[in-house]
Design brief:
This protein is mainly α. 72% of the residues lie in helices and 0% in strands. The protein has 2 domains: 39 residues; 206 residues, MetI-like fold, CATH 1.10.3720.10. α3 packs across α14, α4 crosses α8 and α8 packs antiparallel against α11.
């Protein structure tokens, strides 16, 4: 006895497409609302930096459009604060430290992902476990070590703390997972042709890891640029302060919130520029990051 196959009717298909469009509309509406919720504080802070002090305190706090539109807050910020010096210090650190973090973490990840030796997975788990330790727990021991080594008020303390902490452990984890997605046939072919392990790393692994390098560069740049607590503890000289520490002192020296927001707006411009420069590789890395490797 054969079963009768019922073809979908026109009304059922119409109901399906109507339901699908309705769900899609609700989904996009929710996403737009969430995006607006997350973007509104940032837009408000930027637009408030162009407001006068009277409009900041006497006007409607939810108003976005400055009336009148003024640049006096930026002028006063650049006059009262050596902003160029702070930006230069942060820029040097935010370029040099991520470069070293990329070098060391990628080398470590290369050994943990491509080289076969006993205890490899255990060592990797030790690196990953450091990510679970809050930075505040190791703050005092790290400060005592740096103090006894005589690195207080020195950039060496910033380099060492960034490279040998849980922040760089994430970079090792990320690079390892990405390296394991690269076909081993490329590596084996290079070794057969006489390429050493160092040659494989520089000629095969790194050129095929541009999305991972860009992602780590963006995240490391942002982390170093926004770092506040540790630089405030170990850097005492005014001429060595980073922009985040400088803005903290500036906030305590002025009573105008609009001027502080002007300084904050200037401080986030480099982060935005770095993301725009590497966003193509960053998006590719998030889509094809190789987290499925084993």
């Amino acid at each position: 006895m054969t079963e009768k196959i019922l073809a979908p009717t026109h009304s059922s298909m119409l109901n399906y497409y109507t339901k699908h469009k309705l769900l899609s509309f609700v989904y996009h509406l929710i996403m737009i609302a969430l995006s607006f919720t997350m973007a509104y504080p940032f837009v408000w802070a930027v637009m408030s930096s162009f407001k006068t002090s009277g409009q900041m305190f006497a006007g409607n706090p939810l108003t976005l459009i400055p009336r009148p539109f003024t640049l006096i807050n930026y002028e006063r910020t650049l006059e009262l604060l050596p902003f160029g010096m702070f930006m230069r210090n942060s820029l040097v650190l935010s370029l040099a430290i991520p470069a070293l973090m990329i070098l060391f973490s990628s080398l470590c990840a290369y050994g943990l992902s491509r080289l076969e030796f006993r205890g490899r997975n255990f060592i990797f788990m030790l690196f990953v476990s450091t990510m679970m330790v809050p930075s505040h727990v190791t703050l005092i021991p790290n400060y005592l070590i740096v103090s006894r080594l005589g690195w207080i008020d020195s950039y060496v303390s910033l380099f060492v703390n960034a490279i040998f902490t849980g922040v760089n452990a994430f970079n090792i984890f990320f690079f390892r997972q990405f390296f394991m997605s690269i076909p081993k046939d490329l590596e084996q072919a290079a070794i057969i042709d006489g390429c050493s392990f160092a040659g494989v790393y520089f000629r095969i692994i790194l050129p095929n890891s541009k999305p991972a390098i860009a992602t780590v560069a963006i995240l490391s740049f942002r982390t170093v640029w926004n770092s506040f607590l540790w630089p405030m503890l170990v850097i005492n000289s005014f001429e060595k302060m980073t922009v985040t520490v400088g803005l903290q002192y500036y906030r305590g020296a002025v009573d105008n919130s609009a001027q502080v927001l002007a300084g904050v707006t200037l401080a986030i411009i480099p982060v935005i520029l770095v993301f725009l420069a590497f966003q193509k590789y960053f998006i590719n890395s998030t889509i094809n990051s190789g987290f499925g490797g084993t």
